[in-house]
Amino acid sequence: MNRTPLYAAHQELGARFVDFGGWEMPVQYTSIIDEHQAVRQHAGLFDVSHMGEIELRGPYALATAQELTVNDLGRLQDGQAQYSLLCRPSGGVVDDVMVHRMSAERVLLCVNAANTDKDFAWITEHRHGAQVINRSAEFALLALQGPRATEILASLTPLPLLQIPPFAFGEGPVRGREALVAHTGYTGEDGWEIYCAPPDARTLWDALLEAGRRFDIRPAGLGARDTLRLERALPLYGHELTDETTPLEAGLGWAVRFTKPSFIGRDAMLQQRERGLTRCLVGLEMTEPGIPRQGYRIVHDGCAVGAVTSGTKSPTLGKAIGLGYVASTLGAVGTQLGVDIRGRVIGARVVQRPFYKREC
């Protein structure tokens, strides 16, 4: 299996490891709940160096990225980032990505680890004259997330973090190491993602943990990352997003800009929108004891009407929650459903998403 540059640091911290898309990654250090609550209450630090980075370069870089992604890069200035998706002509999702506009001739995409090779091949196939570079081996990636994240990072960099709004980024030193610092994350909390050279990762990891000690920072693993994103109903490729699901079905229509004259998947999704969705992603809250898990059948009036894509017991809310696809006629908030858990149908209802939202 692949290992990130921080593997030894995780071992020293007593991490438990899992195979995640061919990477040996820390799933937890102390407990998922402890790490989850640390992010919600103060700060947590994740190693997400397994993520892939693909860069488009040259005079056709921006036009190529516009054609490949469903969101509108024309809305971005240099130094801004955007959540978007790569789609097939059918509208099915190749991957969801974070797009960084470095300049009109440089666009950096952060892609899901297990999809890096697939995404690189897809982008290369549709490059339209742009140079496509897989830069994944050139980056380590740390995610500092939580209410205290900005305060912690500010103690280690001269970058004016308060002048970098959400979904923007800057480049400069962090603890003397050059880095790209993006005001992004996937936890539902404020936070930063720090792209650096792999040899610098250990220095920055240790420095961030030391700087966050007074705020009771915790190293956090993939277990907490999953419960955090699920509370915010953020989709995960391989669960809510697949080659067979479209962004519209996944509730990501806000990221699809039909005002663009052309992008891959536009015609299929436009037809889907005009016909009306036959299924949709819903948030589920269990009304009886039981935890919905991926693949469990969703039931209505004794008939299977869909399947759970993600589920857990929410550490913040203390309730069992899940996401799943059902017929659109059953997608209204308040609809009573059931989840087949090992042969027994357990009560659930459709609730508003996200499950959790920080009160300002």
**Number of contiguous helices:** 8
CATH C-level of the largest domain: Alpha Beta
Neighbour order of strands in the largest sheet: 10-11-12-9-3-13
Q: How much helicity do the residues have?
A: 10-25%
Structural class: alpha+beta
Instruction: Quickly give the CATH architecture of the largest domain.
Output: 2-Layer Sandwich
CATH superfamily of the largest domain: Probable tRNA modification gtpase trme, domain 1
- Fold-level CATH name of the largest domain: Gyrase A, domain 2
**Total individual domains:** 3
Strand content: 25-35%
Structure description:
- This protein has about 350 residues and is α+β, with helices and mostly antiparallel strands.
- It folds into three domains: about 130 residues, 2-Layer Sandwich (Gyrase A, domain 2), CATH 3.30.1360; about 80 residues, Aminomethyltransferase beta-barrel domains (Alpha-Beta Plaits); about 80 residues, Aminomethyltransferase beta-barrel domains (Elongation Factor Tu (Ef-tu), domain 3).
- The protein is built from eight helices and 19 strands.
- The strands form four sheets. A six-stranded mixed beta sheet has the order 10-11-12-9-3-13.
- Helix 2 packs across helix 7.
- The radius of gyration is 20 Å and the shape is globular.
- The termini are far apart.
Describe the structure using short key phrases:
Gyrase A, domain 2, single chain, 360 residues, 19 strands, alpha+beta, 3 domains, six-stranded mixed β-sheet, Elongation Factor Tu (Ef-tu), domain 3, globular, 8 helices, six-stranded antiparallel β-barrel, Alpha-Beta Plaits
